[in-house]
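Re: export button greyed out
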Amino acid sequence: MDDVTGLLWRILAGPLCAAVVIVLICRRSPFYADFSPVMERSAGAVIAIAFLLGSTWFAWMALDAVKTGNVTTSPTYRFIDVGDLEVNVNWSLDRLSVMMAMIVCVVSLCIFVYSVGYMHGDPGINRFFAKLSFFVFSMLGIVFSGNLVMMFVFWELVGVSSYLLIGYWYQRPAAAEAGKKAFIVNRIGDFGFLLGILLVWNVTGSVDFTDIRNYLKAHPAEVSGGVLTIPALLIFCGAVGKSAQLPLHVWLPDAMEGPTPVSALIHAATMVAAGVYMLCRVSFLVFASPAAMDVIAWIGGLTALLSAVIACQQNDIKRILAYSTLSQLGYMVMAVGLSVPQVNGYMPAMFHLSTHAFFKSLLFLSAGSVIIAFHHAEQDIWKMGGLWKKMPITTACFTVGLLALTGFPGLSGFFSKETILGLARERNEDLFTLATVTAGFTSFYMFRALFVAFLGQPRSEAAGKVKESPWVVLGPLVALAILSVIGGYTWMGIPGWLVGDKGLSEAPAGTNVLLLAMLAFVMGLALAVVFYLCGPAEDPVKTKFPFLHRILWNKFGFDEFYLALVKYVQGGLAALCELVDRWVIAGAGVRGTAGVAQTLGKMLQLFQTGGLQTYAFLFAAGLVIILYYVVTQ
Amino acid sequence: MNLSSLKLEMATAGLGMLVLMLGAFTRRDDKRFLGAISAIGLTAILAWSVCCGAVMGVGFDGMWVNDAMALFFKRLFLIATILVTVMSAGFAGKIESGVGEFFALILFACTGMMLTASVNDFVMLFVSLETVTITFYILTSYLRRQVPSLEAGVKYLILGALSSAFLVYGITFIYGATGGTSFSGLAEFLKVNGAGGLVLLGVMLVLAGLGFKVASVPFHIWVPDVYQGAPTPVTAFLAVGSKAAGFALLLRLLYGGLLPMKATWVALIAVLAALTILYGNLAAIPQKNIKRLLGYSSISHAGFLLLGVAAATAFGTGAALFYLFAYVFTNLGAFLVIVCMANATADDEIASYAGLARRSPLLAAAMTVALVSLAGVPPMAGFFAKFLIFSAVIGQQLWWLAAVGAVGVVASLYYYLGVVKAMYWQEPRQEAAIAVGLTMKVALWFVMAATLAIGVFQGPVVEWAFEAARELVK
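Workaround output, generated via the alternate export path:
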């Protein structure tokens, strides 16, 4: 057994050090006055990328170590030791975590390089890279956490850093609001997560993954009969928040206010994937409760369908991708809920997570490339059009991402989506139908975006003047495009790696699954062709089905509902509290007691006449009172 | 054995003599170096007490006892006196004549305080107490051309004489009843005959005399006037040294002589503690003068210390000892700032502290640390001291007493933070920066660091205080 704890520390230390170093030295300073311009403009990017490269290298070494087998990690030190609660700083090192770490590192690396181009000339670029690095650190922390408490700590760090990143352009009210919304909505889910951790600790007496797993194995009788349903569902709440599932999905589309690399990083490969990863990490817990699994599967399925439907009538290119992310996350969560309850049963979900990380960040970055071409001024697809002539590489990359997302045969998304559909077919017919319908919608809204934004004729003056982006932007696109194509093949080995040598009852997607999925794809495509390929100036759905358009445009009114909830319920409570605070607490309580104290203090001053005779008299009188008190007692 | 157990006191008194002699041969402008000699000499004695100068045991026919508690107090007095001499060196510019004598008197007062720590007999009690008090009569009125100082001196002299009279009067009753002056003899007598009649009268009179020293209600009435009028280093010394000496004597008497009537004094001290806390904290609220404010604050701290005594356990006594230790650094920190401020602004009004943060960030920070610690806010020393005191009181299930203490703490936050608010959030009357000398800077940094360090790493001090308390309470 090789102890590779040090390796894990090194992986984690990379981005953290980068963040610290950037904050400390990348500024104007008398110590290196001559270099100040360099320090202010480009040092941050260089440092962040260099440290991330190091982490990626160490992650690769960890992957290698796990492959050869026989690795172990040791707890570094005791973190909390209160009563029965014992939390060590320890790490998870297995196929699941190293693969996730590898994905995070590789995708982040592409996004970091891309950011150099995307954020070019932004005055806060060092701050940006410091935050990005800190975010990657938090994410890697989640990946390697060996117990629920550590995971929760990093979970919250991800929440904080996502808040910082989404609100990066804090001068814009919309960005600041979106950051706040993401943070608060996530906190709601995290509250459930925390309760879940407490309950799990209550039931099993430990928060350590290995210990909990062993306990469940050793005491099957005590954890049967739904004891774990509530804890599992509460822990799932955390995933609902982070992975933006119904009904806490509302933050993700708004989070598109952040810079596009942030959208790609947070909403493709890392933060939202953290929820699914966490479910896979605690799969042994989830698998112990069939009821919880049902709930998880249905929430995932409904999120997938609902978001796909909403995406059909969005006009902002990033928002379309945001809803598409929601929809794909729904697939993954559904896959967790439908898993075969056995070791590594989470393989389909993780498989889709990996391929999705590649093609979704590709799509976001392509959209970002378009936004660069529009000088960060336009994101409405109805103002674009005809981009393919001027931006062939971006268009090609977007198309590759699109085909992977819609599950076109031969690309990575095809394999992972078929795995999930096959699983659904086997485990739950209703959800299979739902997922297949979702696939149809997926191909509709994605081809809509392609047809409207990239094909046809320019729809605005700006669209006629676009230029292809520089290679620092296109390089990562091409790299991700390649990964999106090959990511799903057996020889890339993602599913095989996940299943490992333990073996999984292979559920090959039957021919009819394949046929139905292809049918859905073709129908979506056909509808999109009918509506959009002819190059309409306005969305035909909007003119022909105004009612449908309005519902979808309003995203089924979730935001309005929550706003009303906050306004009337929370606002009402707050008003009540304000009344109590003003009149009872501040008025009677604070001012009252303060007044009494002041008055008493002034009265006591009356004793202090300054006259010596008075003092001597008071002294003697005090003595007499004491004597009287003692003698009569 | 007998004389060797006195060698720390003799060394301190000798140092005082030396300073007195040197003072006679020093030019007027160089007298501040006497402060340096005093501080260095005291530091040497402190070091000596730690390494080899402490001879433990009972001597002089049981009149004198050197135990862990005696040593605790002696070191405490030495530390307090070192800081006071440093402070006096910064203050020396305001003393018209007799700077050498000023330092010598401080050292003599320190000798007296160290004597109180080992007292085990009523005669010793009176002698050591008067050594302290008479020195303070002179020190209080040292600025003899200034009316406030003179007034403070006269008030302190007459009220102090009154309390000494009560004390001696009480001792005569005790001598009349028991036929001796030793604490142990009194304890024997009380065990056999119970507390009553003349001996009870005598004990109460003696306790009243000690109550005057520690500034407990109803014998506190002199405190605000004297604290305000006395030269600032003397006020500081009164607040920490004289008060601690009073507590040393009180603890010795309560556990050496009055243990058989424990129930009586626990009830009495509990009531007095509650009244003292309420009086000190409430009366401090409307104050406008910082020294007067700290006078009332010192009354309230006497109340908190009495809480620890009223708990009447080894834990409570240990808590009180820790409280005293924390209080020395905290309170002297505040007075160091007052000395610096008085050099710059010539008055002690709280209004003069407005905007201090802009004029001297160091002074404002040191004052804030001191006040926040006095108020008992974590992580300062004062917080942990109050924490221990409250634990002791609650451990004895004296809920009402803990509640009164809590009320006092809340009220104290108001007036302490009022000063902080003035320093940081009010416009200064004038913008001129305040210069602080190097010695004072070092002292300020040291006191701030100590206040924080005792609050964060309480372990060693707690161990030390509790060891002393366990030996006393048994």
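The longest strand of chain B covers residues 57-59. The button fix ships in the next patch.
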